[in-house]
Amino acid sequence: MAGATPGVDDIEPYAADWRAGCLAVFDGNLGRYFADDERATFIEYLDVHSSTLPYFVLVSGDTVLACGGYGKEGDRVSLNWGMVARDHHRRGLGQCITRFRLERIAVEHPDTPVRIETSQHTMGFYARLGFAVENHTPDGFGVGIDRVVMVWLPAAPEPGA
Asked: pTM for this structure?
């Protein structure tokens, strides 16, 4: 795969072997995309919840380049802990792993709205994927990191389909 851009074929289910790589991706995004106090919550997610909720890593060799998951919560599905290694931003990896999750959600939970809590720094990315802002709380995650709740509604089927 030398020189090739990682893609869907490089996404695999999370396993504990990928923990350090996922934490490295998280740590590389601290400050702008995540607040320091969110690290403990992410560790808990990896150690406890990833065994019951779908979580994935996009890898190149033994390096985690992106990760993210989802889970059903009542009448919605939430995208959980999606992130891309800081030095791999703007290479299409975020779109790749997000579209991968949305496609799985569409099969597993058809016609179910998808929710994400993100920041003002990534809300444009999700808007380009069809998410709409539902709520925006300045400094909701920490100083300088707003909490932006966005929702994606599955496309309605074509008439006669």
From this structure: 0.87
132-142 and 63-73 as β-strands: parallel, antiparallel, unpaired?
unpaired
CA dihedral 63, 65, 58, 44 (to 10 degrees): 90
What lies within 8 Å, CB to CB, of 71 at 6+ separation is: 49, 53, 54, 77, 78, 80
Give residue-wise pLDDT tens across range 84-130: 999 999 899 999 999 999 999 999 998 899 999 999 999 999 999 99
**Residue whose tokens read 């808007």:** 127
Query: How far, in Å, CA of 62 to CA of 18, rounded?
Result: 9
